[in-house]
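Please produce the structure of this protein holding uridine-5'-diphosphate-xylopyranose.
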Amino acid sequence: MKVSVIGCGYLGAVHAAAMAELGHQVVAVDVDPNKIALLASGTAPFFEPGLPEILSSALASQRLRFTTDMSEVAGSSVHFIAVGTPQKAGSNAADMTYVDSAVDALIPFLNDEDFVVGKSTVPVGTSQRLEEKVTAAGSKATVVWNPEFLREGFAVQDTISPDRLVFGINPGSSFDPALSALREVYSTALATDTPLVVTDRATAELVKIAANSFLATKISFINAMSEIAEATGANVTELADAIGYDARIGRRFLNAGVGFGGGCLPKDIRAFSARAEELGLGSSVAFLSEVDEINLRQRQRVVDRVVADCGGDIVDKKVAILGLAFKPLSDDVRDSPALDVARRLHELGADVLAFDPEASGPVARVAPEIPLAQNAQQALLDADIAVLVTEWPEFVQLDPRTAGDLMAHKRIVDARNVLDPAAWRAAGFHYSSLGRP
Ligand code: UDX
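Below is the modeled complex.
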């Protein structure tokens, strides 16, 4: 099929390359000429495993091209809207500027038989509003919603082999053509029995925000348990293992630690609360503000622990920060708990030196005040304490004896509960984690 992808960020760039990989003819558009130039030369503008490979093979096949010129989408029949919906400044709501301007720019090039397919995470009701915009401009193109569930770090795999597909199509004369078009777009995944939910647009919009709210709630639930565990001498990891064996609960997303961050979970729960307030239903999702608070409390808990483990005075203490990305296999530092912890310690007067295998570039741009090391060893050298805040494999596999030989004082705060306390204590470390004795 001939498809266009509007927006070439974490979602759109991967989606465009994956669509070409699946055999479609793709034109990908973004307003940022630097990003487009990088992508057109086969360079991923951010770290995402597998993306460079599918980018080069798609470019080589000539099924993918990047442009800043929206008129090049003419001729495509399916137009994916994959722009960002970040948190609006000074508000909990989603900033819809990019979605609106993408659709406004697209409208002049739409044919009546085309499909505008929303992928961005949006407040429920957005597709209705966009359809009104399209109709008001005199176009008969159909607006449908097809939320994306990709996880950074696994984005290529999640796009090519999703764990489910959701098509939000409203009833009407365009229902059947829209369903056929989406079935054709995703024919490879559907051929392997990927579960498909065909529903209305409002449900499709809600599915995404509900899924992310549920995941955020699960993480904050276990983090709340870790506070209780810590006060009572219980072990939150063993608690998670034990409740996780119940298939109704499940073990995934029950890892207690410094909490969730990134470009999705934090802003999505806030945007959901804001939308619910607009609908007069704020109390229905009031628990999400508690989920947010528990999550943010974890960051301060880690900072307090570091200060306490240094004897109550952190000024001029050398602190090795291991990890800055919001999670491993990503260079994304948007709302990153790790970066937040680094900043707070720096503001308290600690002599912070941080290392992340991939996020140095983004950190240098958004937090130039945070000194960066070239590698973990350099960060650990002469440190008074180490803080593991992003569970990159190379940190999880750190040898406590080697780390101890480098440091001035053998102290580590494991803010992701991923190290073996016994091994670190045996190497002479003062080891602490969150909610484990
Ligand atoms: C999330 C959703 O998983 C994905 O489906 C959606 O499309 C976008 O938002 P992502 O932001 O890439 O994906 O990250 P995810 O893997 O969900 O992790 C989110 C945060 O939760 C990370 O900061 C991670 O460290 C944290 N987390 C995750 C925990 O603290 N504990 C856990 O048990 C799991």
